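Input/output pair, single chain:
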Amino acid sequence: MEENKELTLVEKVQEEEKRKADTKQALLNVYKMAATYYYYQMYNTPKGKIAYDYLKGRNLSDETIKKFRLGYDLERKALVIPYNSSNSYYITRSIESKRFYKLYERKTAL
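Output:
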């Protein structure tokens, strides 16, 4: 009887760990899709060209831009810089004001 309780507890812990891993993977997939979207905006929109020209003016190569999945947020008029931390995955930086924003900040903070 005691053995069954231990097995059940181990199974519950394993299920919880799998659920957390699945959730993390799902979030990473969403972040990758978002990075692709912002990258596309930079390369395929007239306003995105401003960000591209800015990065090129800072001597970033196309290879570096692609490697780090840099992009452009048309709504915020800001570069999108992916990074991985415990509470966020992106930060945006205004080209004009040079101010950094977390993506969860409201646009009115601009």
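Residues 32 and 64 are 17 Å apart (CA to CA). The two ends are 62 Å apart (CA to CA).
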